[in-house]
Amino acid sequence: MTVLDGKKTAQDLKEEIKTTVSEIKKSGQRPPHLAAILVGNDGASLTYVGSKVRSCEYVGFDSTLIRLDESTTEEILLDKIEELNQDDQLDGYIVQLPLPKNIDEEKILLAIDPKKDVDGFHPSNFGRMALEMDSFIPATPYGIMELLERYKIETSGKHCVVVGRSHIVGRPISILMSQKGPAGNATVTVAHSRTQNLTSLTKNADIIVMALGIPEYLTAEMIKEGATIIDVGITRVADENHPKGYVIKGDVAYDEVAAKAAAITPVPGGVGPMTIAMLLKNTLLAFQRKN
Ligand code: NDP
Q: What separation in Å is there between the alpha carbon of 163 and the centre of ligand 1?
């Protein structure tokens, strides 16, 4: 059984990006620059943004964290976005989700300049991705593709079941894995909350991508021997024995599924670290396209 080590692969990727950045600096250019907008004080969002900023520093990018308080209006946020769109010294930026309820996420998403949309959530990037044109691929599915490719998991002609159809994970990974190219050419089935008899699908799958957000949902009896399992889920589960008061669980009952699978991503240390590394890769790409 192979553990698809996202932590190590993400570290490899960061080293590659770091080398490229030091060559950029040596040539006299400024380094790539990523900004992140965080509205409010949500604990998980603070953790995510913090590790994105630290990763930028590690590879030598410039980074800017813009913190706005919980009471920020949609107009103020839209003004900030316009400012970032116009900033020539900035290659890409993200608006950390979720946003407070008084702000229309769709409106914000549409205001981001697609050329700086390194999260790949703008409809222009999503459409371009679906049409196999140059785009920014959302970091989580991009990270899964990279992991499959680097571990040489055969996807061509294989049956892949994706559980979840969100715009940021399930839907894009289902598109990418069915396209031509590396980690693609799979026959993909997309399952969701209305799917009937999920086990009949997963039991016949060569590859299963779990992206629903229900801890330990996929059990050993739902998979066939030798399947590849990608666990995207990240859920904080209360645990008073842990200093933080919670533990992170994936969507897969890891121990029993790992015993039957050929390859599996752990949680933590699987898809999560890859997501951050691919955000850096998209920022480098934004810089390279601009220059
Ligand atoms: P969403 O809540 O947006 O989507 C969940 C999907 O799962 C929906 O399509 C839903 O179906 C489907 N679903 C829910 N219950 C079932 C069920 N019983 N059977 C089959 N399908 C079901 O979640 P996200 O895609 O945003 O995230 C999924 C998980 O991945 C979360 O735990 C999240 O924290 C994690 N995540 C991890 C990332 C990482 O970097 N590792 C990045 C992003 C997310 P329906 O459409 O019918 O409602």
A: 8
pTM above 0.90, yes or no: yes
Task: Give ∠ CA 270-40-83 in degrees, rounded to 5.
Answer: 95
Q: Return the ligand 1 atom nearest residue 250 CA.
A: 32
Q: Report CA(53)–ligand 1 centroid distance (Å).
A: 25
Q: Where are the alpha helices (DSSP H) in 183-253?
A: 198-202
| Ligand 1 atom 18, closest CA | 193
Return the domain boundaries, the chain. 27-113, 139-272
- Record: fold of 139-272: Rossmann fold (3.40.50)
From the list 86, 30, 20, 29, the residue with the least C-alpha distance to 59 is 20
Ligand 1, atom nearest to 270 Cα? 41
Q: Quick check: do 27-113 and 139-272 share a fold?
A: yes
Asked if the 27-113 domain carries CATH number 3.40.50.10860, the reply is yes
When pLDDT is cut at 50, 70 and 90, the band that residue 218 belongs to is: very high
